[in-house]
Specification:
This protein has 227 residues and is of the alpha/beta class. Helix content is 21%, strand content 29%. The longest helix is centred in the last third of the chain and has 11 residues. The radius of gyration is 16 Å and the shape is globular.
């Protein structure tokens, strides 16, 4: 069992044993997360799925303040290294690396990836995290892809963190299929309602998930649960 805190949009702080892993921090520019104090956030690792500003906006600040290790694809890791991030670990698709909290596999995502200054963010991805007591999938921004079946065949996942906002990523219908592909009943929703483009009917999404035999977990910003 791990501790999961939703920080808005696609940002989560995950506690695994005594380590804190922060995914895709977009907090200070997000008006809906204005009650979250970025200055007090600390992490041991910062994992970035791709280079878009709504996933990396607070990464430099938090990584430096925490002396954290930044983990992403090669292009993004090197871009942050050039901005003075001292601890970083570059990866690429299909690769795995074991850290002191568990093993990270960088997996395929179908999206785009450009860094805030226009530099190439390489190819977007997601992460499968295998830790001492379980495993989960953080999809990043992605369309539904048949490659997700490989995740389900390779890992016994407890839950999946999936985008459900449609327009730029999967919507709830495709997220339900993705959950089937990766073999989970619990979907933690992300990338929804932050901007008008991705505002959705949350009650309808919950009903569609329930009808398909899935539990759609929609956290309030700042809320923490154990999974």
């Amino acid at each position: 069992m791990i501790e999961l805190t939703f920080l808005g949009h696609s940002s989560f702080l995950v506690g695994i044993q005594d380590k804190k892993i922060l995914f895709d921090p977009f907090i200070s520019p997000n008006a809906k997360a204005s009650h979250i104090n970025v200055d007090t956030l600390r992490a041991d690792y910062v994992l970035l799925s791709h280079g878009h500003e709504d996933h990396v906006a607070d990464a430099e600040k938090i990584t430096k303040a925490s002396n954290a290790t930044l983990v992403s694809n090669y292009e993004i890791a090197i871009w942050f290294a050039q901005k003075g991030v001292e601890k970083y670990h570059p990866m690429n698709h299909g690769g795995s690396k074991t850290f002191d909290f568990g093993t990270v596999k960088y997996v395929h995502a179908v999206h785009s990836s450009t860094l805030p200054d226009g530099a190439s963010g390489g190819n977007p991805g997601g992460f499968v995290i295998k830790h001492e007591t379980g495993a989960f999938y953080y999809a990043g921004d992605t369309a539904l892809t048949y490659d997700m079946k490989l995740i389900g065949e390779s890992f016994n996942l407890d839950f999946a963190i999936l985008p459900i906002g449609d327009n730029f990523t999967m919507g709830i219908e495709d997220a339900i299929i993705a959950a089937d592909f990766v073999g989970v009943k619990k979907i933690v929703g992300m990338h929804f309602d932050t901007f008008p483009y991705i505002e959705i009917d949350l009650e309808k999404a919950k009903k569609l998930a329930a009808k398909a035999g899935k539990e759609l977990i929609l956290l309030n910003i700042g809320e923490t649960i154990k999974l």
